[in-house]
Amino acid sequence: MIRLEKRRNISKFWTTVTPIIAVFLTMSFGALMFGLLLGDFSSAFGAIKLIFWDPLFDENFASYARPQLLVKAGPIILIAIGLSIGFKAGIWNIGAEGQYILGAIFGASVALSLYPQESILIFPAMILSGALGGFIWALIPALLKVYFKTNEILVSLMLVYVAENILASVSQGLLRNPEGMGLPGSRNLKDYPSAHNSEIILNSGMHWGVLTAFLAVILAYFLFLKHQKGYEIRIAGEAPKAAYFAGINPSKTIIFCMGMSGLLAGMAGLFEVAGPAGQITMSFNSGYGFTAIIVAFLGRLNPMGILLAGLLMALTYIGGEIAQLMLGLPGASIQLLQGMLLFFLLATDIFTNYRFKSRGS
Amino acid sequence: MVIFGIDLVLLISALMISATPVLLAAIGEAVVEKSGVLNLGVEGMMITGAVIGFIFAVNTQTPIYGFISAAIAGALLSVLFAVLTQYIMSNQVATGLGLTMVGLGLSALIGKPYEGIKSPTLSKIEIPILSDIPILGPMIFSHDAIVYFSVILVATVAFVISKTRIGLVLRAVGENQEAAHALGYKVVRIRFLAIMFGGATAGIGGAYISLARVPQWTEGMTAGAGWIALALVVFASWKPWRVLLGAYLFGGITVLQLNLQAIGVAIPVEILSMSPYLVTIVVLVGISLFGHHTAPGSLARPFHASQ
Q: Taking the model in full, what pTM does it have?
């Protein structure tokens, strides 16, 4: 008989190793799944290689795929860093998708209302406005939790559906391109130099949002390592009672964590709509807000881990597109692959938290 | 009975149909939470039930096989959650979210060839004598089998939880897992079964969307119904009959806003479509203002016998 014994401290070794094991398990089961889907197991390995390897190293794809890696990873990392702050404190903002949408709408509104004036101040104003949009949207579940003790998981998620309806409304009404011949969707910000979130280095995929994401990684690293606030957040999550008796105000922690994650998600939305997406449309959002949840966990709520996990997740998006194109794999299989990854990670977590012992010893 | 251009008989009858999916999912989740487990994967189990139920119903041309297979599919998916949270002691919030993502991806994948097909529909069962009552008859006693099943299920769950030994044990496990364990109850096994029950009812609820309410398969068609079911459980303060009340209130709002859209009221469509979600938030606030917070004591706390 083997029994489990809880570790006093979580194992550092397994914390680092289990995400890698989870990735390999996902690849193996993914290959199995693709084999079943394609009815041909010999090409299943090829599908996995196409998703995880070829975007970076195959000459046919790399020139397109490498810059895309940063384009896709940028928003995911930025959102996930914000979410990780709350998750550490046991505050579950799972409505980042809604905050992302609101950020995009707020930010784009600034540009669309000033069109066609040109000024160097427009883009910074858009970033601020986008951050504000996400912040406000996240503040709703935060304040409701503080004042009415409502469940932030449910409220933040409900607000995603509300945000999607607002998006549908403004892309057909308020923000619709007046010269768009009645089609839904706003003006394309790529054609508006002052508002365009252009690449900092040409053909690298590196736009202002990616740079912000990297900055957020560094800032989060210092927040948790050096700053009093980061320490308070960790205590609030790990030992809520101790935090309370130490005089750490739980309401402030909730507002700080939700607000920060909303702010970053809003900024991510703005960078996306002003850059790669270009315009507000009914479906410009691509589920990054939900993918970021997986990334936050896969990265162990650790800023450096999130950076790596975000890049990996971006890879599955791009590889998925290529596999869709080359092998006709359905787009949803990538979503399933990402869900599986989270599951395998949670399953292998047992090594991190528990020790295996044979009975009698 | 026509008020403001809306037929009341049709409205009530439609709200029962519209409420049934969330009602089924919510009553199952209420049992799961009573046992002290928070499964956020309801949406994933519902959509899996929706697609599996649809596939089986179309291939056999028998809706009831669809519902049975949807129940099995939901329960099987919930086993994943049960193993991870009960034996591997993973975080319940993260695992539930993962379950939802897996369910959404899986269903989109296997449902692809079935898009645009019509499913066989359930026949109505007119209850003898009762369905002949004017107004009330066509409103309440002229529905398909699943609508009746959902109400009977609520009654059964209410009875089992409050009046039987099984219910007492379930509540004990949910309220105080250490004490229940000390008394010799198998905490993990009881929770495992509760989770599977919740999976099965969520699966049936999902299948009701694809087989009766719509009836068609489209990707992501549950559109947050699973999350609303979770909110309903809180709204109902974990009481089965209040789950029914909440589900019908919610169904009423959904049907009403669809009716208002249809008769062309001067309110933007988007405002009407977002109203069920907004109302859910308002209700959650109202409950914490005026209701009692009676969440099971051990809700979402992991249990390991060594501690």
A: 0.87
